Every structure is written in structure tokens, then in C-alpha cells.
Protein: Amino acid--[acyl-carrier-protein] ligase
Amino acid sequence: MCGLDHHDDSLLEAMLENNLLFDSGVDGLYGRSGIFEDVIERFELLVRRLGAPDKATRIHFPPGMGRKTLEKSGYLKSFPHLAGGVHSFEGSDRDHAKLLGMLEAGEDWSDLQTPTDVFLTPAACYPLYPTVAQQGAVPDDGRLFELSSYCFRHEPSKDPARMQMFRMREFVRIGTPEQVCDFRESWLERGKTMIEGLGLPCHLDLASDPFFGRGGKMMAISQREQALKFELLIPVNSEETPTACLSFNYHQDHFGQTWGLQFEDGRTCHSACIGFGLERVALALFRHHGPDVEKWPAATRKLLWED
Structure:
């Protein structure tokens, strides 16, 4: 089966030409067709089926989270360049009149917006840890959650696999180091098998997060040396630089220490998360199988539409 032809044009242009994505005028923000959304919904159902035996507790958070929660999480120490805060107009009638005049004149009116207590959620799991902490001690067998959320990261790009607003589905395991590492290992196998079953080329690789600044380079080296992050890479926008579509992260006790996540005996909990980039997987499917889902390989269609 031929994939989505983008040898002469970029993948983004091919997606736009086939009315699978729609241009908003801002890089990394796109409308999505009903077909594109259906593929994502079907993939989410597949993930849920594979994760069902684990009996995770499902929680859905909004795409915004509290400013203080984000500050305490440490995200701004490592990724200040990706964070996005929500601003709003809180002025007087006179300020409103000034704003209208600036709009009419085509002037920059952003100074009339003030920061609110809301930040856009950078990863689906960030609001979870304080929520679990509020529920008291973690049982000896740990906790497991299934999450889904729109997320934001400020990295505008012509690569459609690097959207500014995108969705993540995650499984988060909280428990002992052995419990969370065993869970991550189980999904390293399950995730690769699932993607291969969809007829997509992929491979697992050690990875590191895009930490900010000079100190971030040392953090990235340490993360790789300790094998804290793996990614499942699929050629999406290019063969030379495949895209991370699934991630497998071991946080050690970072969130346990930050939020006071403990067992009854006072031991600090560790955590791990398995993340699925939903738009990225959908793009990979269109890239390799073509724009007409009716012509996708029978095995792929069976997994997504018939199981």
C-alpha cells in the first residue's frame, strides 16, 4: 500500500491538500478532519483495550492547570521555553477603549492582557500528582491511572508532527521502583507490538527531554546514562529523523518528593508514565498507508475498526 506522497511537497502540504488538516494561519495549530479524528478515536480504543487488563483508574483533566502547581512541579526550571500561560483582559472601560483604538490602528495590544492563575497543561500527567497526594497514603500495591488531555508546548514548526496543541494519552504508575519499572518494561513490549501490528516501521531508542540551557545538556546526558527515557520512533515527516510517537519515562522519586507521595510506612513513591502522542500516530498512519482509510492494509483496519 502506497503511503501519503510527499516527495515533492512537505507532509504538512500533503495533509492540507487532502483535507485531512486545515490551516489556521499559525504554525502548529491545525483543524482536523472527521476522518483524522476518527483515526485518533480508533487508536485510543486500541490503547484502552491493550491496557484494560491493568485496570487503571481513568481521569480526564482540562487542558489548563494551576500556575502554582506548574511552578512546584519544576517544569519551569527545565522547560521554560515550552511553557504557555493564559492571559486575560482585566482593565477598566477606559482601558477597553484604548484596546479598541489599538486594534483599529493595528497596534500591539498585548500589554493590556495580564497573567491569570492558569497555565496550559504541558503533559497529561502533571495535574495528577497533587491530586493523588491529596488522597493520602499510597497502598502497598501502588496506583495506576489512565489519563487523556490536550497539551501545549510552544515550539511552532512546519512539521505537523510537532504541533503546539496536541493530545496525549498516558498511563501513570505510582509505586515502588520495582513496580513502576516492571510496568514500563511491559509497555515497552506492548507498545512496539501494537505499532508493528498497525503496519508502521518503528524502533525503540534511548532518549532525553529537551531541557533548557547549558545545565540542560548535563541533565540530558544523565537522563540517557540512567536509561530514564525511551521513545518509540516512527518515520513521519522524514526517514532521516523519525518522530517519537510513544514515550516510556521513569521519573524515579521526583514527583514523589515534590508532592509528598508516600506509602503508609513513609517510603517515598516512584513513578513512571507511558505516553502516546495521538496526532503523531495518526500522522504516521496517513504517511505510510495513504489518505484513503478504506484502502489501508487489512491488518491495520482490523485492529482499528473491527476488533
